[in-house]
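testing teh design pipeline on a random one, pls ignore if ur not involved
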């Protein structure tokens, strides 16, 4: 491929008026290579391609050396350098992603316990800055009080960042009994599931393709999209974080919710805590 690019550059220079000798010297191309007609590697290496395809048909997950040794056992005497060159040109050296098989998910009803800090819901959202740079948000919601607990903003939010957000909430208000979420790679990772198991948190996964089973956080996402993400143009991640914190405070402290009797989530949480305290006396 390097030779073909150099040949193209040299021929462009010759077409512009340079001599073949000078064009080859400038592009570090041999004159013999300049005059050689390009040959389609698929035709030149058709035997190697067929041999590789025959091996991969029987063993689709075989790597290069497995393929090469199987070819040798079948009597193919190709040089390993040639086989590897064809192997790479066919794109077989690229990592092949395999779909992760999820365990069966059971539909769980959206029953709400009238107790703050008992059931939380997680979900991710996407948007972009004014310059086009993409970012994500991790939204965590208390299903009982509809209170937004955190809006984590960054270009990447892997499982470690989810745990960091939960650890911060653990220091501020404790941890829930349940977490409701979808089957995203960050949320089904061993790192997160082990952490939740260590903290005795039940994980409630929704069924794939059924976002309505996580209806409370999806309803919140709709408000967050309309009133915040679609309402402003952001120049930096710091600006998104600062404005999201202000919006979250207003959502929790001032914005009324019909499902809560037209009072803000923070006030509803204080009512629940007060009633629970009086019942415990």
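output:
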């Amino acid at each position: 491929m390097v030779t073909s690019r150099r040949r193209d550059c040299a021929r462009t220079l010759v077409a512009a008026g340079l001599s073949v000798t000078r064009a080859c010297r400038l592009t570090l191309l041999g004159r013999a290579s300049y005059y050689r007609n390009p040959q389609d590697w698929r035709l030149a290496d058709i035997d190697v391609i067929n041999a590789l395809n025959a091996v991969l048909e029987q063993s689709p997950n075989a790597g290069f050396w497995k393929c090469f040794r199987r070819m040798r056992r079948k009597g193919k005497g190709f040089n390993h350098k040639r086989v590897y060159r064809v192997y790479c040109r066919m794109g077989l050296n690229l990592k092949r992603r395999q779909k992760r098989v999820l365990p069966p998910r059971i539909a769980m009803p959206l029953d709400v316990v009238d107790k703050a800090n008992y059931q939380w819901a997680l979900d991710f959202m996407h948007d972009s800055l004014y310059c086009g740079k993409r970012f994500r948000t991790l939204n965590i919601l208390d299903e009982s009080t509809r209170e937004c607990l955190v809006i984590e903003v960054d270009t990447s939010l892997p499982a470690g960042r989810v745990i960091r957000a939960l650890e911060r909430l653990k220091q501020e208000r404790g941890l829930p009994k349940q977490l409701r979420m979808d089957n995203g790679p960050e949320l089904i990772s061993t790192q997160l599931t082990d952490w939740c198991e260590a903290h005795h948190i039940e994980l409630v996964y929704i069924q794939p393709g059924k976002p309505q089973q996580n209806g409370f956080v999806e309803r919140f996402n709709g408000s967050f999209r309309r009133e915040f993400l679609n309402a402003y143009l952001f120049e930096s991640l710091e600006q998104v974080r600062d404005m999201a914190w202000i919006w979250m405070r207003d959502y929790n402290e001032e914005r009324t919710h019909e499902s809560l009797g037209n009072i803000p989530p923070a006030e509803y949480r204080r009512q629940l805590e007060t009633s629970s305290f009086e019942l415990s006396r």
